[in-house]
Amino acid sequence: MEEKPGQDRIPDTPLFDRKRSLGGYRINKMAMGLSRPENREAFKQDESAYLDRFGLTPEEKEAVMTRNWREMVRLGGNLFFILKISAVDPVRITEIGAHQAGMEHDDFLRNRLGKKV
Amino acid sequence: MEEKPGQDRIPDTPLFDRKRSLGGYRINKMAMGLSRPENREAFKQDESAYLDRFGLTPEEKEAVMTRNWREMVRLGGNLFFILKISAVDPVRITEIGAHQAGMEHDDFLRNRLGKKV
Amino acid sequence: MAKLIGGLGTSHVPSIGAAIDKGLRETPDWKPFFDGYIPGQDWVKEHKPDVAVVIFNDHGNSFFLDKVPTFAVGCAEEYRPVDEGWGPRAIPPFKGAVDFSWHFIDTLIDNRFDPMICQEIEVDHGIQVPMELFWGRPAEWPVRVVPIFVNVIQYPIPLPSRCYEMGRVLRQAIESYPTDERFVVLGTGGLSHQLQGARAGFVNPEADRAFLNDIAGDPDKLANMSREQYVEMFGSEGAELMMWLVMRGAMDRDVVVRHKHYFVPASMTGAGMIVMENMATASPAVAA
Amino acid sequence: MAKLIGGLGTSHVPSIGAAIDKGLRETPDWKPFFDGYIPGQDWVKEHKPDVAVVIFNDHGNSFFLDKVPTFAVGCAEEYRPVDEGWGPRAIPPFKGAVDFSWHFIDTLIDNRFDPMICQEIEVDHGIQVPMELFWGRPAEWPVRVVPIFVNVIQYPIPLPSRCYEMGRVLRQAIESYPTDERFVVLGTGGLSHQLQGARAGFVNPEADRAFLNDIAGDPDKLANMSREQYVEMFGSEGAELMMWLVMRGAMDRDVVVRHKHYFVPASMTGAGMIVMENMATASPAVAA
Ligand SMILES: [Fe+3]
Ligand SMILES: [Fe+3]
């Protein structure tokens, strides 16, 4: 059983299929945990210890701790779960989008979303 | 919405339909709790307090505390849940059956289950 | 018998709820979006539905990946807002149309659907935002709800045509329900958006506008599209738009469009709204 | 392609597991029951299946009434015994046939089934006891499993004919699975028993024996019975017998019965066992 996400069926569009769901299980479970106030507190107090509780690999931990959204998704993180990180450590969803698109935030708003900025 | 179980569609055979599932929700949730060791301990230590934690009505509490299986089922208790009481406070399932059938245990074994006793 | 008085469609973007909470309704970014819903709110006020059946998806809030139901139907007395990470939002809990929910579940099982049956569950922005968009922020909701959760996150997600079929069973359940209550069905989600991958930020206003036309005029075309086509056309998260087909499947072939609105982007999403009535029972002046 | 080598049916009464745990196998109460499974165990040893698809119901252990799936399919790496109240039983955890599970789920969704998808779940006696009856108590299970949970407790439970249909989809999944693995399918539950109400203790040996004949020779008849007929004939809990139809639906119309056993009562239950092979692929000597 391959653990890592494979090719995208639609270009640049990661479908959350069995491989991603399996591969991202730890990251997503950790992030799901952030829907409880006491876990948000624990995450704030000692992020590394909180991540260890969910058995994240060093690679996964680094992606989370550096807020590397693209990498979290590549490792199987699903945005609906990992978005809860932004409830603890605020960041706009358009910034998360821009990061994944590999664009400056203003460019992203202008060129992807058609905003006048 | 009627809370209490209604007529049996098949004689003497309570189907676990929406009315029973709704009516018995508290009893069954309490009993489901007994699948955790710490709750079994709490039940043993102070049964009344344990039952209160699940908001049982006085009628429901009395049925449980007197091990009135027939009454527990009438109130919507489902045997698969309330059977967990017998893990804490041992009683044979055939005794639970006999009680519901309104028969002596030996009669029940002989006449219902065809055992030679 | 109960009556289906309308089919509503709307996006359910979480930022919409956040914008309301933060009092941003009148800001230049949000005003044109919210203004578009005024006719929808007026329609609801005028037609006073008793029950709202709301089709939406959970977004990793009520369900985790350990156990993912394809379809789940609520039959609870009450549905409280779930904590999505920012604490539960301060909106009134939804009252359930318990008896109809069970009747619908019976009808589903009889028609070879395999729903998960939920007597106790919290609900996320997927239902909150649509309710706020059509009913505002009352002290108590003037309708009772039936939540239908559809898995559109973890593959395999259901076929669009299966969603459409479920709508037909919903209609059958409404028409066989022995009260004189008035039902609306809300399809929610979409329109185009993509939140993950290098194509993040993808929106497709042209496809969105076509969808708003086809959902009324050519729903069979939308029901026959593949899941991949939804993803390609509307983005990986925009594919949830197929949930509107449950609503559309509950309606007649011929409908009247009462209101329609499109705005892009709401947050990162093409945001659409529609209000439809069945042609056969629409008020004659408009149906003509 | 993978191959279906047999269909097994068996009761899954918890007291059977308790009898094994307490070393009661050779007591007069239990010996005739367990001896009946020796040919079944021999068949398994001889035919060495790689994967066992096991259809059973949870008994208020893995699921509570808050969220009841009609059908749930496991796709986990491992399934541990759940604590049913007496502590988890000391049997080895079951290894999952993960990749096939997902293939089966894909096939179900494509065929308009709506399963719940379980990546993390514990399992109760519903699967434990059948595995012990056919494979004994090895240090490690020599087969990997695919658990299929069916709601037969809270009404509405699925139609018997729906279970039968699911079996056909299971067969399709096995035959389209690109390995040379050997599959058995186990239908479990029943036979006649009733644990609640004034009819508690009801058993129906005559109906049970007829069922053991019909499951091989006339499954369509069993699939066309109503849920109420199952309850009437087999008792309120005996109605779970309809789960054998998933197994039977996976087989050909014509089967060979290799072994069959019936014993009453095991605890409060009419206990039955059957081993079948498809006629077309059974060894010629017996099929003739
Ligand atoms: Fe959504
Ligand atoms: Fe069972």
TrEMBL record, chains A, B:
Per UniProt, residues of the Extradiol ring-cleavage dioxygenase LigAB LigA subunit domain are 27-111
The keyword Oxidoreductase appears for this protein: yes
> Do the record's keywords include Signal?
no
A GO molecular-function descriptor? dioxygenase activity
Q: Which SUPFAM superfamilies match?
A: LigA subunit of an aromatic-ring-opening dioxygenase LigAB
Q: Which UniProt keywords apply?
A: Dioxygenase, Oxidoreductase
Write the protein's name. Extradiol ring-cleavage dioxygenase
Q: Which organism is it from?
A: Microvirga splendida
Upper classification of the organism: Bacteria, Pseudomonadati, Pseudomonadota, Alphaproteobacteria, Hyphomicrobiales
